[in-house]
Structure prediction request, 243 residues.
Amino acid sequence: LKASQPHRTRTAFAGPTRERGTSAPYAMAPRVRRSSTAAPVCLAAFAATLVASTASRWLLFCGSPSTAARTAVVARSAGFDGAPAPARKKAKVALSEEQLRADHGDAWTLVDSVLRGNKAESPEAIMRARFTAVKYKDAAFLAATEIDENADRKQRTESWKQVLGLVEKDPIQNLLSFGGESDIESLKSVRSFQIVSTLDDDVEFKIACSNGKVLHEKSTFKKDAKWGYVYTGESEFGKWESA
Prediction:
């Protein structure tokens, strides 16, 4: 289950990425250095105009805050005025037992444990947690629990955001798909999850999507110090079927 997987058959979470060694679609022409005494003057004038324009927009929409007011704001935010600095809280999606049981039955505790920050006790546990991440659109979790030597974690997160419909599709990918949706984009809306079999580090599963397509895949996992197990990026097979 992977958002991008070049050089092999696309599987559950596979998506198009650029291949290594490919050249950019265009190259920059060599610069011709020109000497001009007027250049520094023009740049200085442009910078002055830009600063003046920015300042005028600030005054137009926000007014001109006094120095004392700005100092007070900085002091409060840093906790220097006697009051503690405001704590930043991350929004988390709390899933109930009922929600997890609906997708995983009696195995819901495997997912609940991972969501609470514990290591996955088996490949099945992390695969179930990854399905839950797909359903509730947690691109960061999906990127963190997989391996891809061709993309770093940030790139994987962005790929997952596109697959899950959290951001607009990359223009190049949109062009290659002729403006339509690829199979992997069926994961934007999923209905159910089924474990077909587990053997050693392999998990065979099916994901039924709302559009009637079913992802049938057998993937390999490996032990990980942080997550317990992670998806290796390798799948014995991955295919899309009709419900």
